[in-house]
Specification:
Layout: E1 5-12, E2 19-20, E3 27-30, E4 54-58, E5 60-62, E6 65-74, E7 78-81, E8 88-89, E9 91-97, E10 100-105, E11 112-118, E12 123-124, E13 127-128, E14 133-138
Parallel strand pairs: 2-14
Antiparallel strand pairs: 1-6, 3-10, 4-8, 4-11, 5-6, 6-7, 9-10, 11-14, 12-13
């Protein structure tokens, strides 16, 4: 049809085990170099080098899961993969030292569920593959 069909990904559970009270939380991302690519047929191992390769997403809570959009399809524009801009939350990061980054949201976060998602955008057999998801909630 003409109306787009949304592709969604979900995380089990309506809340993350990691709940934060601070609406401007600080996160630290640690990246290490690894040459262990044995068995990485589809390129699914995380080879991220900075927080710039992640997206912070405000999740929609549905019964017993947390949901985010990972693509859209319609007959006029075809298939698109990626994260819905409406769910994305902007953040800043600064390099503390090699391989370590301090990450903070640009604005206070609203109460709810969030996750950092590897934004590599890899596809395997036409399906958008998500390699890493780091979830948390704001109380």
């Amino acid at each position: 049809g003409i109306a787009p069909i949304k592709t969604k990904s979900s995380i089990n559970g309506s809340t993350s085990n990691f709940q934060i009270e601070d609406v401007l939380p600080v996160f630290y991302f640690y990246f290490t170099k690894s040459s262990d690519d044995v068995g990485d047929i589809y390129g699914l191992k995380n080879k991220s080098a900075s927080p710039n390769e992640y997206v912070l997403i405000k999740l929609n809570v549905k019964q017993n899961s947390r949901v985010f959009i990972t693509g859209k399809t319609n007959t006029l524009s075809g298939n698109t993969s990626g994260f819905d801009e409406k769910q994305q939350v902007e953040f800043n990061f600064e390099k503390v030292k090699p391989g370590i980054y301090k990450v903070t949201p640009k604005k206070p976060l609203l109460k709810g569920e969030y996750c950092f998602v590897d934004a590599d955008g890899s596809t395997v057999m036409g399906m958008f593959m998500i390699k890493k998801v780091y979830g948390f909630g704001i109380k």
